[in-house]
Amino acid sequence: MTAPAEPKSGRGWELAAVLAVTYAASGLYALLELVRAELTVRGGIAATTARIVYVQPTTHPWLDFADRLADLLTGFAPALLALALLARDPGGRGAGIGLERLRRARDWLQGLGFCALIGVPGLALVYVAHRLGYNASIAAVTFPDLWYRIPYLLLRALNSGMGEEIVVCAYLLTRLRQLRVPAVPALLIESTLRGSYHLYQGYGGFAGNFVMGLIFGYWFQRTGRVVPLVVAHTLLDAISFIGYVYLHGHVSWI
Q1: What counts of helices (H) and strands (E) characterise the chain?
Q2: Closest Cα partner for 115 from 13, 235, 251?
Q3: Global model pTM greater than 0.70
Q4: Is residue 109 in some structural domain?
Q5: Is residue 77 in some structural domain?
Q6: Which of 58, 61, 106, 209 could form a disulfide with 195 if both were Cys (CB 3.0 to 4.6 A apart)?
Q7: How many domains is the chain partitioned into structurally?
Q8: Residues 247, 130: contact at Cβ < 8 Å?
Q9: Does 254 reside within a domain?
Q10: What's the CA gap between 237 and 75, in Å, rounded?
């Protein structure tokens, strides 16, 4: 016996609630941060520095380590929430987002392809936007040289990859399809949301992630598979974090 279909109004309220406690809230705060920089900082957003992973050590290393573990555990919560809801509706194998069709080699190759497609142009866009005064400087990682720095950064990358692609791409687009929102408006909603919570980086951060949302969202709409997108996003962030750690101070433009 199959469970009754979720009422359309119930899905809408559920979607609004999930976004309100996850990425829509982040988008609101990022917008306020951008407005504050433009209004109160001489030189606007271009005169600020956006910190992505910022860790300030204290005199209690074991508490610092516990804080980082808590960061990682809570960082997986949005993706787990979305997966739990998708497992209930639409349900079935793979929760409607392709998790039943794991193809390790193919998923990794597709993820690498998306990483290359998005990574190089995205980095160039952020650099040009900063030079033109439309983007903050990016300090990708501020983290003391501790034994767990690299594992932590890799897991933070996985946090972002799972959270953004499962919630913002797979869950959001699935619910919008169930709510009978046409494909193109749904794609624009997903891309705008993705760009919004990067507004703290400036207009270039918004534009680059909006384009990323169009590409990733279109792929998901066509294939219903999220795993290559999680792989790509995780690789993008991991390369950014680890690259910044080892190249900052040695390469003039980083």
Answers
A1: 10, 2
A2: 235
A3: yes
A4: yes
A5: yes
A6: 209
A7: 1
A8: no
A9: no
A10: 14
